[in-house]
Amino acid sequence: MWAIVEAAGWPIWTIIAASVVSLAIILERLYTLRRGAVVPSGLLAQTLQEYRRVGDRDELLQKLHGHSPLGRLFAAGLRNVHGSREVMKESIEDEGRQVAYQLERLLTSLGTIAAMAPLLGLLGTVIGMIEIFGSQNASGANPQQLAHGISVALYNTAFGLIVAIPSMMFYRYFRSKVDGLLVEMEAQAIKLVEVVHGERKNGS
Hints:
Blueprint: H1 2-8, H2 11-32, H3 35-38, H4 43-54, H5 58-65, H6 69-79, H7 85-103, H8 107-134, E1 136-137, E2 140-141, H9 143-202
Antiparallel strand pairs: 1-2
Helix pairs in contact: 1-9, 2-8, 2-9, 5-6, 6-7, 6-9, 7-9, 8-9
């Protein structure tokens, strides 16, 4: 592996740095965007049970806020439970924008790496081509310098694509997953509003 890096020349280090950052983001997002951590199953039923038992006490709101992103939406809604249905929904939407920002964190960086990695590979290719042309002299081409220039060009192109392709795949995957999680969180939060206000309206 070290021999390949040496053959690829200094431009490969920019691609290696990009690959390390990309891998770190992918691992972090895989852990953070777990369905069970973002939209825990059964949280709506537990929240309604606790609300019926203790009401909108601060202890319940703080517990929900620190529980999960979905819990943050529930806490925002219950914090305004004594207002109208529209006020409760607006508070959930405001909190939802902050939750969405947290879920989408670092995805722009991952998309940037996916777009820039081929360009870094192209930079290495251009540098390799410069070395190839530089190997030409009055007595002909320098075989060693010519071979090194070809290595720089090909290895950087290949490594750039190797970094870009999985980065773009995970970027698209995470974007789709975040959109799906947000839709599900919104649906459960709206259900909470409807159930709570239905109970209040019926006096139960």
